[in-house]
Design brief:
The complex is a heterodimer of chains A (363) and B (297). Chain A has 363 residues and is of the alpha+beta class. Chain A is built from eight helices and 20 strands. In chain B, 73% of the residues lie in helices and 0% in strands. Chains A and B meet through helix 4 of A and helix 9 and helix 10 of B.
Chain lengths: 363, 297
């Protein structure tokens, strides 16, 4: 039961539909026991197909999936030690809430008294105690989702799979449910694997995130690492907001890479690799400062004109168009009530950041 | 310009107010006189004969021409007419067997067409629907030719003497069941099926506990349609019925050949009542509120 052991091993799994569509392309990853794992990516990236292969609803064209050390290739969905919460919740409309929750126990011949007890327990766990007699059409969307959760958890699976569980909820409820899912996962200690296209969801809930694109895993890392150290342009752009510049490597010395970007000049930043080639230079909007005067030499700086200011309450995004036409977004915290963003459209100023706050992206 | 017109909307007098009608909107079809006329004429043509038939079944006269007062006499007479009752029992027996078999077949076909992909599926789907579109007279002749060709035994004990009519009825009514059930399956969320299996249910348990309860309204509606179709079928039955297997519609037809007595009206009225009840039930089970999944389990 030691945390950190892989409960799910996905080994070189490929899934093709027909001759032309490759939904999942040679994916290998381990999901550790007890962790909250997220598969994140835009729609059509293969994350749901991967989840359905873990659940057993799709068979891999190539490769192998192991759950708790056992090869699953010949095991049908109803014999796998995992359960799933479906995107539509798939609550059985003709059964009461209690019957829904007890269904998975009934079909596996658990005694009636035990079913009632465990179903009640599961409903308490998802805070639906006392609603067992209701029909699904008497429940709200959020409650129906809790029924789906209770129905899966009552089976005491080794892994709980969640397919876009929050996409059908409104913004407030979604936020509450994110915390709720984390609380639930701590309470039951079961490995959760969630599929989502919402980066905020993944960042706020998961221990580790696999970012997928075109059927491949681009990066697998904890949320903060994914945010601060994306390994390619796709991840940098997909997670959060990012300013991307195209440049080239001018030289390498030790742990530093000297890059040259049009309009920004030459500067060194942490990195390694070849001393040549086209690279992407990325910097997060909150790492960029606005300056009225030309900043010191040790800052990367670019001159431009404010083209737009978007006020978000807690912070504002200032969009600066530089002399070559690129738009740089800058995130400013609105720290004092009376303070305005301080800039207006048309202001001429400098965007500046420390060289080591920018990222070198070779892929 | 008259004084009345100059008085303005308030002082226009009650006459103007009464006579002025609101303009008929483009979609207010029920307010157009020609539309009302057409609808009225249609209903009259459709239902007047039936109403007349029912009314004259209570007519105290041997001939169905003049109203001579109210009586239940002819219902009594029909009830005491042994050959008529025999035909009625035959019809019921055929309808019940047909309903059972056609419903099971129809549900199986609907599920097979929804669940599986197999070579020739589109062709099969088309062929299966043929009994719905083929003229009944052709079906009847084909059935007659078929039973003659295979040398279907005659003179079997009851109810086996009805077997060829049953087979013919099943052949033309099961597609109606299949179509009705299929219509319900279109709205089925396949994640329900996945969820059931994910929770440990086998294929059969999923069918039994999830798919069939969902289909129930469609199955009942289909069964009632099959029952009604069988009960009042004349053409196909006429071609397949032997001398010992007369059904109610065939019997009524032969009675009419001699004279249209109120007894015929009475027998027909009974048939109408049964059919209407079955149809109303079928419609209730197919109503949108039932489809939406609000039905009780």
């Amino acid at each position: 039961m030691a945390e950190g052991l892989p409960i799910i091993r996905i080994k070189e799994v490929t899934k093709r539909f027909g001759q032309t569509v490759t939904a999942v392309d040679d994916v290998s990853l381990d999901i550790r026991e007890g962790e909250f794992f997220a598969l994140l990516g835009p729609s059509g990236c293969g994350k749901t197909t991967l989840l359905r292969m873990i659940a057993g609803f799709e068979t891999p064209s190539e490769g192998q999936i192991l759950i708790d050390g056992q090869d699953m290739s010949k095991v049908p969905p109803n014999r796998r030690p995992i359960n799933m919460v479906f995107q539509s919740y798939a609550v059985f409309p003709h059964m009461t809430v209690a019957d829904n929750v007890g269904y998975g126990l009934k079909v596996t011949n658990v005694p009636k008294a035990e079913i009632r007890e465990r179903a009640e327990e599961a409903l308490e766990l998802v805070k639906l105690g006392g609603l067992g007699g209701r029909k699904p059409d008497q429940l709200s969307g959020g409650q129906r989702q809790r029924v789906a959760l209770a129905r899966a958890l009552v089976k005491r699976p080794k892994v709980l799979l969640l397919d876009e569980p929050l996409s059908a909820l409104d913004a407030k409820l979604r936020e509450a449910m994110q915390l709720e899912l984390v609380r639930l996962q701590h309470a039951v200690g079961i490995t959760f694997v969630i599929v989502t296209h919402d980066q905020n969801e993944a960042l706020s809930m998961a221990n580790r995130i696999a970012v997928m694109e075109h059927g491949k895993v681009r990066q697998l890392a904890p949320p903060s690492e994914l945010y601060e150290f994306p390994n390619c342009r796709f991840v940098a752009d997909f997670i959060g907001k990012m300013n991307l510049f195209e440049g080239r490597v001018a030289g390498v010395s030790g742990e530093e890479v000297l890059v040259e970007v049009q309009g920004l000049g030459r500067f060194s930043l942490p990195g390694e690799g070849e001393a040549s080639g086209e690279v992407g230079i990325a910097v997060r909007p909150e790492k960029v400062r606005l300056r009225r005067e030309k900043p010191d030499e040790d800052m990367v700086a670019v001159h431009g004109k404010v083209s737009e200011v978007a006020y978000y309450g807690g912070s504002s995004f200032v969009y600066v168009t530089d002399d070559t036409g690129r738009t740089i977004s800058v995130n400013q915290q609105n720290e004092a009530r009376t303070a305005e963003p301080g800039v207006t459209i048309g202001d001429e100023l400098w965007c500046a950041w420390k060289p080591r706050d920018s990222l070198l992206l070779r892929a | 310009m008259s004084a009345g017109q100059g008085a303005g909307p308030a002082g226009g007098g009650k006459w103007t107010v009464l006579r002025r009608r609101e303009a008929v909107g483009p979609l207010e079809y029920t307010r157009r006189w020609w539309m009302r006329l057409t609808v009225g004429a249609t209903f009259l043509m459709l239902y007047a004969p039936i109403i007349l038939l029912v009314v004259y079944s209570f007519n105290d006269s041997r001939r169905n021409i003049v109203w001579r007062g109210f009586t239940f006499k002819y219902y009594e007479k029909a009830w005491n007419n042994e050959s008529l009752i025999e035909a009625f029992v035959n019809s019921l027996a055929i309808a019940v067997v047909n309903t059972l078999v056609a419903t099971i077949l129809g549900v199986l076909v609907a599920i097979a067409l929804w669940r599986f992909r197999f070579p020739g599926k589109a062709a099969y789907e088309g062929f299966m629907m043929l009994p719905i579109v083929i003229p009944e007279i052709c079906m009847g002749v084909a059935m007659m030719a078929f039973f003659a060709r295979v040398g279907w035994p005659t003179g079997l004990p009851w109810p086996l003497t009805l077997s060829n009519i049953m087979i013919a009825h099943i052949a033309f009514s099961f597609p109606f069941v299949a179509v009705t059930v299929r219509g319900r399956l279109v709205g089925f969320n396949r994640e329900l099926e996945d969820a059931s299996k994910d929770l440990g249910a086998s294929e059969w348990q999923t069918m039994r506990y999830i798919v069939l309860p969902y289909l129930r309204p469609g199955i009942i509606a289909g069964a009632l349609i099959a029952f009604t179709l069988s009960l009042d079928d004349f053409v196909i039955t006429f071609f397949t019925a032997g001398p010992n297997s007369v059904t109610l519609p065939v019997k009524i037809f032969s009675m009419v050949r001699f004279s249209v007595t109120p007894e015929v009206n009475a027998a027909s009225t009974v048939l109408i009542v049964i059919t209407v009840i079955a149809t109303v039930l079928a419609m209730r089970f197919q109503s949108p509120s039932r489809r939406a999944g609000g039905e009780e389990g």
